[in-house]
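Office hours follow-up: a student asked to see two folded examples consecutively, so here they are.
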Amino acid sequence: MPLHIGENATDLSLLTHLSHDDIANLQSVGRDAQAARREYILKDDQENVWEYLKSLRGKNDDKKVRVDFVLDNAGFELFTDLVFADFLVTYTPYVSQVIFQYGFSSSPLTQSRLINPILITTLLVLSPKLIPWFVSDVTPPDFLSTIPSLLSETFFPSQPPVSSATEDSASIAAAGPDDKSKPPSTASVTSELGVDSRPHLREMVERWQRYLDNGTFGLSVPLETPIGAQNDKADFWTSPWPYWELKDKAPEIYEGLQASSLVIFKGDLNYRKLTGDVRWPVSTPFETAVGPLNGSFPILSLRTNKADVAVGVPQEVADKLDAAGEKWRVNGRYALVSFLPKSE
């Protein structure tokens, strides 16, 4: 889960001023890197989430559990969404099916198939936007291109291209002698993916393709759905309404989410809409800030701070960060993991 939070910090709005080393650090996945990130999680409900997921095995006699994802960014974040889905399906005893959702639709749920009758069947429904609302939001074409791109031999070339001296000179001249922001060459970037890693990447991505082909990963609308298509069960995600209005403005979505065992809201914008985009006092409980959604269905919000709204943070922690001059609300370094169960 720390990786899943860290990748949310790599959206396009924050990359314009970051160096290559900064981005590589954000995308690092080692144990030490993940442990270091933990101190930046100002509200951390991870243990509660895992305990809740484990408890689902005893609560569902029909062995069917559904998890919904409301997605955020394309690119590296979508890649790690797929990694997370793969982890749940392949390496845990809780999940045996994933359904990717473009807007909420109940039709794919009829495709449920129990791969292993000992496991819980989890319908993991991922909901992207039908327009790139804030530039980098996941759309159906993004999903359509992700797996083929990762399987392409040219995506991670075996031999990094060698730039010519003329090209290097032109780049340096354009940047200026004192400009230290020149990005690294393609050679330095591609060489970081070791040759030994490529077969493992291909094995994983080919498994994703098999999961799509056999129904383990499912889609709620056709992959070919174009950008800008209208769907009554998807348009709410790009409407001006806070998610407090979900029940009234999008009752089909709301009713579907009520049937979910966990709804995961990814990213800063979804967090803002969950909390009404109100600048609450930081110590306000998350359950207060989500208003009428509290108790409606289990909510997990994974959010890197990029806007002023933040709740569930101890006042003394916020005061200390403010006194240190940390722009912790907006700089993308700090995160919140907020979990609310469904009311019994």
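And the second, which I mentioned at the end of office hours:
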Amino acid sequence: MSSTIEKINPNLPIHLEKCQELDNEHPINVVIMFGWTNSNVRNVSKIASYWRKKGNFHILDWTASDFPYIYFTKKATQACAAFIPYLQEFGVLPTTNEDDDSKHSPTKPKLIAHAFSNGGTTGLAGLAEACKLQNLPLHYSALIIDSAPGTTSIFTFYKIFTVAQKNPIKKAFLAIVIEFLFLLVGLPSMVLYSSCTGQKTIIEFFTNVLFEHNAAKYSPRLFIYSKTDKLVPSSSVEKVIAKSVKLCGDKTRKWCLEESDHVTHWMKHTEIYEKTVDNFIDEFHKIIINTKYQTKKMYQEQPRGSRSHDPYIGTTFQRALYFVLTAILGYFLLALLAVVVLESLDLYREVGKAIRHWFAN
């Protein structure tokens, strides 16, 4: 029997795939796939095949990892509240009067968070905050954190939005436009807004939940990252891992790949990825696999278009020359703009603090 992915809120990019082969002898667990920035349900559902083939999982997908959710943590928290009725229905939100034995009973369904990049960890933290606001005692049974957390350089910010673009001319053009808009509008606006409101950055938002929030601070966590990730440096992830080891070392695990791109670890290393997650889950939780369930391929790969349909005209030399000249001019102007913006950030911070102080009084 094939599964159906349904959108559970018409205004939000969050989806549900209910387990079809119910096994009354074992609990039906829940996994939330918190997708990366610019992810979509098709991409995330491919990776969810790992959980789907286990057979005893309801799968929730979060692909609200773009504007405004990735920039405004309050929006992410509001969006994640839509998950709560389903978590209550599936029995993974414990009641306040449950004793510890009931909360950790092997017959109780488990809630696992599988988060990708900073976009995914924002959703993970947003759900914890949404439950806290409603006085609901959320507890993640396990956290799988893929390609996060980490700070992207302002000069590589464009890669978040161009990583899937194959055409080099399109990629260069988009990179220049995105960096211009980010440096001219995005970065100053974010600094000013954060200073005015006191809002945490998305990294602070996630790490606060990871280390201080009851939903996650006692949860086993597996960090999956790569030394060659160009968006989230391994050094950024390892700083968080070091703190995690210090605070809850017996529950911290990591897997560092020598070569793998951002959020592509499952796609490029599927077998060892799934084995690593299996070992992690089995170490902390015994999750019985429903062997009656047969996984079916839900999506068919579409053939790529022929190179003969390339819309770019002109000789190879002309196209290459255009690309080089555009890149040189664009990056020169970007460098000039970056100097001006970076010199102005302290001013934006002071203005924001002054505005917040004025409203407070």
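Two things to take away from it. The longest helix spans residues 316-360. The CA atoms of residues 44 and 354 lie 42 Å apart.
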